[in-house]
Structure formats: structure tokens, C-alpha cells
Design brief:
The protein contains five helices and four strands. The protein is mainly alpha-helical. The protein has one domain (16-93). The strands form two sheets. Strands 1-4 form a two-stranded parallel sheet. The chain has a two-stranded antiparallel ribbon with strand order 2-3. It starts with 14 loop residues before the first strand and ends with a strand.
Length: 101
């Protein structure tokens, strides 16, 4: 404390592991399609994973969301729960540089 003022550190960039983990199923499917060279199928896979819309039969399928939107939303929920419980604040106090749950 200098002259009665408190000093605050700048906000630093953090990486939420839970949200990043939510992108893993979608990313692994994209990798498989790219490795096979099927870029049209990869685009359909991403659209189906994020929106649930299948361009093949032009219908909505809930099971398509299990590889894209649902894991991402679950990761956001876990991150918010960890912040609410104070786990992220404890990780910051322990000195981990930029990782949070």
C-alpha cells in the first residue's frame, strides 16, 4: 500500500481448461475428416455438430449436437461452477500462470 492507495494488477489472459475440453470431440472429428481429405464431409460434420442440422437428409438431429454444442456448453457450465465455488480464484492464488478450470 503506497500513500493509502491499493495497487491492482492488470487482468491477464486465462485459458479455461473445461471450455477447451468441450471442443475436443468436435476437433477430433474435424481432424479425422481433414486427414482423409474429405473437406465437404468435414463442413457438414461441423454444421451438424454445432447446429444439429444434417444437410444429407435436411433434418434436425439431436444426436448430432453430442459432438459439438453439448460438450462446449457443458465445459462453459463447469467453468462457471468452478468460478462460483472459488476454485479458479484458488488456482490464481496458488501461482499458476494462466490456467483455470
Amino acid at each position: 500500500m503506497k500513500n493509502g492507495r491499493t495497487t491492482r494488477s492488470k487482468k491477464k489472459m486465462t485459458v479455461s481448461l473445461a471450455v477447451i475440453a468441450g471442443f475436443v470431440p468436435l476437433g477430433s472429428g474435424i481432424y479425422d475428416y481433414a486427414k482423409a481429405g474429405n473437406y465437404k464431409g468435414m463442413a457438414a460434420y461441423v454444421v451438424n455438430g454445432i447446429t444439429g442440422y444434417s444437410s444429407g437428409d435436411q433434418k434436425f438431429h439431436v444426436n448430432g449436437l453430442t459432438t459439438g454444442l453439448l460438450p462446449i456448453m457443458a465445459g462453459i457450465g463447469v467453468h462457471k461452477l468452478a468460478s462460483w465455488l472459488g476454485i479458479n480464484k484458488a488456482l490464481a492464488a496458488s501461482g499458476l500462470p494462466f490456467l483455470r478450470i
